[in-house]
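Worked Example 4.2. Consider the chain below.
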Amino acid sequence: MADNKSLEALHKKLHNHLENQAKNWKSFVYAKEKGFYQGFDEIKIDGWRPSEKRFERYNIEKYLSKSKSALDIGCNCGFFTIVVSRYVKDIDGVEINPYMVDIANDTKEFLDVQNAVFVTSSFENYHADKKYDVIFSLANDETIDGNTKFTFAEYMKKIEQYLTDEGFVMFETVSPDTYAPKLFQPKLDHIKKHFTIIEDKMVKSEYPLNVPERRFLILKKNK
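Applying the procedure from the previous section yields the following structure tokens:
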């Protein structure tokens, strides 16, 4: 357990990244009212979406193991990615916002996490020389900041290309698809053409305030 002085030093670093983001990042910033979109109880960071609680709500531990590689698309500040790292062989987080990647890397170093790598890139431009056993798409198939250029079909095709034959996709809906299910139906129809839905449930969500729950699906490739 880190002492208060070392945590204060980490918090100062992380808030410096938020300040630099406010000065230099021109895109929409999620959850800037609190500072952090993701929370992380382990390092006493309060965010809109608490990472440890999200992991518990998804109830996905049975799909993870120390033999599996994972990818977290749009990993934000990497707190959730780091939580998942404790349950897999390795995990890559891809995030277009460099200030969020700085936060992720400082936190990773502070916690001495050896099996997580954070990459500054859009998902469109992301390249890896491997496939993944688990891919997280948590409210990232489209974004209100205008940085997502893929159509939904293009987005899911790239996920399918990077997924191992026996792999799983952890898919959480974006806000509009949650509170207006008719918007999600065309996406759901597309998903069913390419994937088998293993689980389909609602999970609690604190952000934004008008979306108290999100739809969460676990998918496998159709054979």
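The mean pLDDT is 96. The first helix runs from residue 4 to 24. Compare this with Example 4.1 before moving on.
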